[in-house]
């Protein structure tokens, strides 16, 4: 195992690369605040590109016209490319003139899509372009902004063929990251390597195919690479001051946690604190790698450090998940919700790729709250209709209060009719109408 002393991983999400000005800010952060030693920069697609590509893919899959939407994505990237190019005043405009090649390839990929093939497999081939485009622009901009060599490396994470939710093959990923670094090791120090977040690769019948790690999976990529490279630390650059006790876009008067343990953070992310992808923490905790959450708007500010630590009681954390669906299954023959019944329900949930956010059972009925997806819920209903009477309710919200007290429960529940409620010693959760 080759170790790179002092290696760090920076992850820049969609908001921090949303346009040319944001990419230039990223360059300043790396230049003025970056480490002396080697740095891996993981980037997400620019702004809301992934949403746009999802829409384009959906149209293509249904055989509908997507040219206007694709044109808008191309124009958006072209604008950023020309602005970056004119900022650095480079005589060579290859970076801008080569950009249409990506769109040519994307167009060809979209044309090869037909509704007979697996929706999820095609999705990964298309949606991953967002990260390729942003890595291309960021590599070029960093190369011009820094006095050191900046290299690009394609997605390093090896997965299985679970399309849209690739499961990491840790052994292969470690081999691939090692291999990628070998060629660079001679004078790796002082170098910066840019790579795509969110995207993985898998070998199918001897061909390499693209996978993705699940929406918002770039934080996870940063953690996977840090784990494989035994990095000293990971920093994710966000548009907030750090990890707060609630999303400031939803809740007023938030407070920042200057320091917080892996365990507390894993739970917050699991319950839906969308600032960190829930899978990010485990690889880091396994190797004791600290995770810094810092503001790209104020890079000198302290942010939050997430690591192994003891801390006094934390301010209650508020988490809201929208677009929830409450499903209830009642046995048709009045048999109890037994282990056998539950096994059937759980297996169907797994098959339909529906993840349980909360569950509760009574004598003959079982309820689960899941993120709503019409396609997946219908698949589930088809699987279970024969054995169970099913009801579902959509357009709901799931609230979680971690480290709750009476005041925080009152603050959130007042005036709301609760459809489901659950409490442990540290966590209070309820489902209600939006
Ligand atoms: N507990 C929290 N602390 C801070 N931000 C939070 C929290 N929960 C949700 N957020 C939201 O997470 C956003 C940043 O995460 P995200 O949008 O995924 O960033 P990016 O895609 O740029 O990596 C913030 O703008 C904020 O609205
Ligand atoms: N671009 C992908 C992956 C990602 O992690 O993005 P972000 O870092 O902007 O959340 C998505 O939107 O799902």
TrEMBL record:
<dbReference type="InterPro" id="IPR001341">
    <property type="entry name" value="Asp_kinase"/>
</dbReference>
<comment type="pathway">
    <text>Amino-acid biosynthesis; L-threonine biosynthesis; L-threonine from L-aspartate: step 1/5.</text>
</comment>
<keyword id="KW-0547">Nucleotide-binding</keyword>
<keyword id="KW-0808">Transferase</keyword>
<feature type="domain" description="Aspartate/glutamate/uridylate kinase">
    <location>
        <begin position="8"/>
        <end position="295"/>
    </location>
</feature>
<dbReference type="Pfam" id="PF00696">
    <property type="entry name" value="AA_kinase"/>
</dbReference>
<keyword id="KW-0067">ATP-binding</keyword>
<dbReference type="InterPro" id="IPR045865">
    <property type="entry name" value="ACT-like_dom_sf"/>
</dbReference>
<dbReference type="GO" id="GO:0004072">
    <property type="term" value="F:aspartate kinase activity"/>
</dbReference>
<dbReference type="InterPro" id="IPR042199">
    <property type="entry name" value="AsparK_Bifunc_asparK/hSer_DH"/>
</dbReference>
<dbReference type="InterPro" id="IPR001048">
    <property type="entry name" value="Asp/Glu/Uridylate_kinase"/>
</dbReference>
<keyword id="KW-0418">Kinase</keyword>
<comment type="pathway">
    <text>Amino-acid biosynthesis; L-methionine biosynthesis via de novo pathway; L-homoserine from L-aspartate: step 1/3.</text>
</comment>
<keyword id="KW-0028">Amino-acid biosynthesis</keyword>
<protein>
    <recommendedName>
        <fullName>Aspartokinase</fullName>
        <ecNumber>2.7.2.4</ecNumber>
    </recommendedName>
</protein>
<dbReference type="InterPro" id="IPR036393">
    <property type="entry name" value="AceGlu_kinase-like_sf"/>
</dbReference>
<comment type="similarity">
    <text>Belongs to the aspartokinase family.</text>
</comment>
